Amino acid sequence: MLSLVVLISGGGSNLRALLEASEDAEFPARVVAVGADRDADGFAHAEEFGIPTFSLALSSFPDRESWGDAMLEQIRVWQPDLVILSGFMKLVPPRVVDALAPHLINTHPAYLPEFPGAHGVRDALAAGVPETGASVIVVDNGVDSGPIISQRRVPVLPGDTEESLHNRIKPVERELLIQAVLDIANGHIDLKELATA
């Protein structure tokens, strides 16, 4: 059974999908804790499912490195097999990435390497592309530049706004994330192998 710590910043829709999936006795992973860099709305999902939460605001620390060290300490309490950044809107310091790699994965609302960074959906619309997508990646010390675990295309429709496009990408992100967790738990994806390829 794969143990997961999920880090969020917002509503936690991917977190909820994981929590619902793990209610199935056959699903080979369980969320053991949920962390955030603020008092995130998504904590409500964790509370509903009886999952412990922790929150560490970057502004409470003298610098990003000390915040990262505290975050790593909190994560290590739970001894997770896998840490998932799911809508986590802070760059994780290199020390944290190096300590958790390659068992640190991230979802991103674009077909990487297209449109990395915090505004993938907005950037896709601004570029006028006919399609974008969703990706699940292994986190490295770049910005959305790690090895790709899985991805799928999503069309951009005439009249799409950032919100309408993001709302169509989110369900794809969730499906990719659930499948990635399944594949990692079942040994169909070897993160070490992927990270060194």
UniProtKB/TrEMBL annotation:
GO terms in the biological process aspect are: 'de novo' IMP biosynthetic process
Q: Which residues form the active site?
A: 108 (proton donor)
Record-annotated membrane-spanning stretches: none
Write down the position(s) of the site called Raises pKa of active site His.
144
Would you tell me the Gene Ontology cellular component terms?
Answer: cytosol
Q: Which GO terms describe its molecular function?
A: phosphoribosylglycinamide formyltransferase activity
* Record InterPro entries: Formyl_transf_N, Formyl_transf_N_sf, GART
Q: Which residues form the Formyl transferase N-terminal domain?
A: 4-181
Please name the pathway. Answer: Purine metabolism; IMP biosynthesis via de novo pathway; N(2)-formyl-N(1)-(5-phospho-D-ribosyl)glycinamide from N(1)-(5-phospho-D-ribosyl)glycinamide (10-formyl THF route): step 1/1
Q: Which reaction does it catalyse?
A: N(1)-(5-phospho-beta-D-ribosyl)glycinamide + (6R)-10-formyltetrahydrofolate = N(2)-formyl-N(1)-(5-phospho-beta-D-ribosyl)glycinamide + (6S)-5,6,7,8-tetrahydrofolate + H(+)
Q: What superkingdom heads the lineage?
A: Bacteria
Q: Which UniProt keywords apply?
A: Purine biosynthesis, Transferase
Q: Where does N(1)-(5-phospho-beta-D-ribosyl)glycinamide bind?
A: 12-14
Q: What is its EC number?
A: 2.1.2.2
Q: Which Pfam families match?
A: Formyl_trans_N
Q: CDD domains per the record? A: FMT_core_GART
Annotated residues for binding of (6R)-10-formyltetrahydrofolate: 64, 89-92, 106
Please describe what this protein does.
Answer: Catalyzes the transfer of a formyl group from 10-formyltetrahydrofolate to 5-phospho-ribosyl-glycinamide (GAR), producing 5-phospho-ribosyl-N-formylglycinamide (FGAR) and tetrahydrofolate.
Family assignment?
Belongs to the GART family.
What is the official name of this protein in its record?
Phosphoribosylglycinamide formyltransferase
Organism source for this protein?
Answer: Galbitalea soli
Report the gene name.
Answer: purN
